[in-house]
Request: fold
Amino acid sequence: MPEIIPIGGGKGGAGKSFIAANLGALIAKKGHQVVLVDLDLGASNLHTFLGIKNTSGGLNLFMTKQVQQLAQVVVPTHHANLSFVNSVNCSMQIANLYHAQKVKLINALKGLSFDYIILDLGAGTHFNTLDFFLTSNKSILVCTPEPTAIENAFRFIKAVYLRKLKQIIHLNAFHKVIKKAVLDEGHDELGSADIIDLVLKYDPDHEMLLRESISHFHFKFILNQFRKHMGTGLGEKIEIVCNRHFYSKFHFLGYVQFDDRVFESVLRKSLFTLSYPDSSASASLEQIATQLTGHRTTAVNLTEAS
Amino acid sequence: MKTFKGKTHYEVLGVPLDAQAGEIKRAYQEALTLYEENSLVTYSLFSDAQRSQLLQAIDNAYHTLSDNARRSAYNRMLIDTEEVSAELFQACNPHERPAASTLRPLPRQCDLKNWVKIKWAEEKIRQCAGEIMRQEHIAGKDLKQLREIMDITLAEIFAVTRIPTYVLERIEADRYDELPAEVFLRGFLKSYAQTLQVDPMSVVVGYLKRLKHAHHSSQNCK
Reply:
């Protein structure tokens, strides 16, 4: 069973594609078979980081049923063990996937015969992005140490958390009042706390189940573009606070230092960690790649959820 | 989202049952950096109402745990309501251990700034400060005297000014040879004076005058 690593995070420009491409390359370098899948539908640019110019075909062919198997649109990259699925040609209709298409795609991803499948997700909190993020228990949130980025990251976390709560309620035998309140389309303003209150009120027997299920979900996060003067301990402190105030588990993977040469290496269409393996940013990414491959857990099956 | 509801004061501050005064104080200051309004760590994570509730809980916890009498009463309450078993407390009795003198708990509920303000209302403090400030030369021991009658520890000065306590000790002991460079010393004296709410310029000028005078006389002796 492949291990899926979705990479998301509310804000655009935080470095999701940069992290995805470089982590993919580092994990591939360790000898694992890795496929990078660009799921930033409508705004994809993962191919740029990989230096891939030919972007014909790709995910579009699979989504429009021009090919039957997702494996048919997987292409090799310049790097050993590292493959790629582009989504450059996905039209705007595909950016707003139907539920059935999404389930089909998630199942197809899980069926790919690779060791690691890295999903590069788009910015924002669209429910498709949230569902891709929730396909695995190894999801990584990328954030920069700025107020606006942190604000968006928390919004993303809360959105994922709420979506997860709704999935749990959907998949389990909760009281019908709760199911109706939570799953009715008209109740978008319902927050996580409201859901837990509802459960406490109508279905206290299921409260433990809800807490248990939500506590199985893990968030991992990376602080990217970190500069020395930004104060140490920010990531560790965010981890403490989140673990204290959410029922899910949070794990801080590490800082990736800001480096001017990232811009230049994107221009040259070469991967930063391979061009500058001795930089501190590369060392941090290497350390994160080691953490991710150190122990293998199986992906959580969430495809049935809406 | 979980709040501090149902958490003990020890859990709120994240300290063990046998935490010493210094540890409690550090944990309190650390908690404030996490939850204060402009903290990057929790930026936009909480609503204003949630945040003020959390800060209130942190203040309550510190107010209780930093006072020996209140802490003992609270511990008894925890044991009586069976939230924490008595054996756990017996295993670690904080009062039997000598507390670090510089880190003893605050004898007050308000922050240092208000405390100094309150102290300034006392006649003996106004008198003492007046005498010190009227001198042409100001010695470290004068500053120490003023600080001590206001019942403020070096650790508290450090908490506000971030001047390391060993530097404060050197300043107060007039150990001129071990002081930092003048440009830093000026800054340190200024923030120290501001914390005690005395005129910073007079303190800087008076202290440096005495320091230079001492240097001259030691050179003349040679």
Q: What stands out?
A: The longest helix of chain B spans residues 200-221. Chain B touches chain A through eleven residues (CB under 8 Å). Residues 113 and 203 of chain B are 18 Å apart (CA to CA). The mean pLDDT of chain B is 85.
